[in-house]
Design a protein that fits this description.
By secondary structure, this protein is mainly beta. It is built from 4 helices and 11 strands, in the order ββαββαββββαβαββ. The longest helix is centred in the last third of the chain and has 10 residues.
Length: 252
């Protein structure tokens, strides 16, 4: 096997680094002739965050608040990119399943390089309600989320667009994923990527209550896609599931 790669890191804060890279791999004949390998030459892209755990730095920004968010949503057969573009927003199109969750997090980057861009880390517990098709079950989420809020009307009504990416582990496989993967003849997985696009507005700005300016209401998509096998996070995901939800988020 021949492999070439180029990697780099960018310092975000004292502890956090943004890392990325590209790789080029040429497989030997014994691998390239396998029926599961499409091409001899494969390319890859890596993007992630690195956290410095050495004791010389402060773990969190001083007085970092605790973020809490709760949401409830209904299943949708729409593709996640179509939902984000408002091309398709229907719910309960083939079943009546739903999801409810409570998540907590902390901000770890505020106004990156002076831009209106914040980052936070979240963990949470979601409850899948399977409408009698199978027992209801829990799911654990862990992800990093970016918030952009630099819109022209921000001084009047703060509006944020968020994007979270991480992992989700479910006690059972949601009905939507079982059904879709069965149609493709592919296996399911309890551990999948989670993808969380959202848009929200400040309740305090809407009501003219300064004490509620850091409380938000909004809409989002709880999406799971294959971490194993062939999948595309933003495309026609093999075995993904989508729930369109409404939520409330506040800080303490």
């Amino acid at each position: 096997m021949t492999q070439l790669g180029l990697y780099g890191a960018y310092r975000l804060t004292e502890r956090w680094r943004l890392i990325g890279g590209v790789t080029w791999v040429r497989w030997p004949d014994v691998v390239a002739l396998s029926p599961v390998v499409e091409t001899r030459v494969q390319r890859g892209v890596t993007l992630g965050l690195m956290y410095d755990i050495s004791p010389d730095h402060q773990a969190w920004p001083e007085h970092a608040p605790l973020i809490a968010r709760a949401y409830y949503g209904a299943s949708s057969d729409c593709n996640v990119t179509h939902i984000m573009r408002l091309v398709c927003t229907s719910t309960h199109t083939r079943d009546q399943t739903s999801i409810a969750a409570l998540e907590v997090g902390r901000p770890f980057i505020e106004r990156l390089n002076g831009w209106p861009l914040d980052f936070a880390g979240f963990v949470g517990l979601a409850r899948h309600k399977e409408a009698g098709f199978q027992p209801d079950f829990y799911q654990i989420n862990a992800y990093i989320k970016a918030y952009y809020y630099g819109f022209p009307w921000d001084s009047h009504v703060r509006t944020r667009v968020g994007l979270g990416i991480g992992l989700a582990y479910a006690r059972r496989i949601p009905l939507m994923e079982v059904r879709d993967l069965a149609d493709r003849g592919r296996p399911t997985s309890r551990l999948l990527n989670t993808f969380d696009p959202t848009v929200d507005v400040s309740v305090g700005d809407l009501l003219g209550a300064r004490s509620l300016r850091d409380t938000y209401v909004g809409l989002g998509v709880a999406h799971r896609s294959g971490i194993f096998g062939s999948s595309r996070l933003l495309g026609n995901v093999s075995g993904g599931s989508n729930y369109i939800y409404g939520y409330v988020e506040t800080t303490f």
